[in-house]
């Protein structure tokens, strides 16, 4: 059975631990050790207070479910220690220099970096953008103001611009825009809206190119413990982990 090292013990980490099937969480690390111990109690793994000790554990892959800063702080060390890695906080990869450093480090060490689909659908198909031109690539995200930490009584446009710019201002809310950009091979346009009338996170994808046109709307149920996180994001990691050793690969 695949052995997982879990980096980050917030809402997504708890969902992964509660729904682990086909893999086991054998090592857990969080800067707040109490949170790591909570997940270790659920998963029957070992909680570590020291990152180096966590990294020394015999695991097959390390799953980051923490933050952009955690990716920036730990990803290079993880790859240097010849561990495959799942990056949930894909906003860290909006930094092109950092992204290429990770890509080259993974190549040299023979490791893989996996990026789950997160809170949207259709990433596999966006890869056509690396082969055939995509002329329009827009993500329009609408969230309740509470999940964005703001107060507004009406629908309001908070940001309009490129994904790499948006992620700097809203690092916890538009990771999906960076995932879209990486899949298509070009920086996605982003609109971020706050709307007090919505109680779910809404992502609308607009894609146009030589292939034709596509429109995808995803209405996500927020995680009960953290309205800034979608339940679909956690499920996408679970799906990725369950299928890593599947000999038949669908939709890549």
What do you see in this structure?
The protein is of the alpha/beta class and 252 residues long. It folds into two domains: 2-115 and 234-243, 3-Layer(aba) Sandwich (Rossmann fold), CATH 3.40.50.720; 123-220, Dihydrodipicolinate Reductase, domain 2. It is 36% helix and 29% strand. The protein contains ten helices and 13 strands. It has helices at 11-18, 33-43, 51-56, 68-80, 96-109, 123-126, 145-148, 163-169, 175-184, 231-243, and strands spanning 2-7, 23-29, 46-48, 61-64, 84-87, 113-114, 134-143, 156-162, 189-194, 201-209, 212-220, 222-223, 226-230. The strands form three sheets. Strands 3-2-1-4-5-6 form a six-stranded parallel beta sheet. A five-stranded mixed beta sheet has the order 8-9-7-10-11. Strand 4, helix 4 and strand 5 (84-87) form a beta-alpha-beta unit. Helix 1 (11-18) runs parallel beside helix 2 (33-43) and helix 1 crosses helix 10. The chain is globular, with a radius of gyration of 18 Å. It starts with a strand and ends in a 9-residue tail after the last helix. 42% of the residues are buried. The model has no long low-confidence stretch (mean pLDDT 91).
Tags for this model:
252 residues; alpha/beta; Rossmann fold; Dihydrodipicolinate Reductase, domain 2; 5-stranded mixed beta sheet; 36% helix; globular
